[in-house]
Amino acid sequence: MPVSLLWRFIKKGITMTEDHITRVQEPDGSTHTTIIRESEPARRSGGGMGMILVALVLVAALVVGAMLLSRGQNAEIAKDNAVADAAQKVGDSAAQAGQAVEDAADKVTGNN
After folding, report:
1. 3-state SS class at 43
2. DSSP states along 69-97
3. Which residues, 6+ apart, have CB-to-CB distance to 69 below 8 Å?
4. What is the signed CA dihedral for 80, 81, 83, 88, rounded to 10 degrees?
């Protein structure tokens, strides 16, 4: 349903319409048709309180959605930081292992 139609429905409501059609045939063969259209005005109650409640529900849904989105992004950042920290530790360990290999090689060859 397009937004403009939805807004028109909320703002004006739906009017109930009922048609009564009567066809009369005269003895001479002619006919005439009478159409009576009855409609009830749209009912509105609450003095706009319904619109306020709808607005509050929408705002609450937006706040909850923003919180869930933020929580998901924070978890992603924490995961990225953990991976970066682990990579740094692996790099430091590799540097220490390389230094130990060089020290061992120097001791074996006698290059101190």
Report:
1. coil
2. HHHHHHHHHHHHHHHHHHHHHHHHHHHHH
3. none
4. 140
Q: How far apart are CA 98 and CA 86, in angstroms?
A: 18
Cα separation values, 81 from 28, 78, 90, Å: 96, 5, 14
> Dihedral, CA atoms, 104, 105, 108, 112, nearest 10 degrees?
-90
Return per-residue pLDDT of the chain as tens, 112 residues: 455 655 555 555 556 677 778 888 888 888 888 888 777 765 655 567 778 888 899 999 999 988 888 887 778 888 888 999 999 999 889 889 888 888 888 888 877 6
pTM score above 0.70 = no
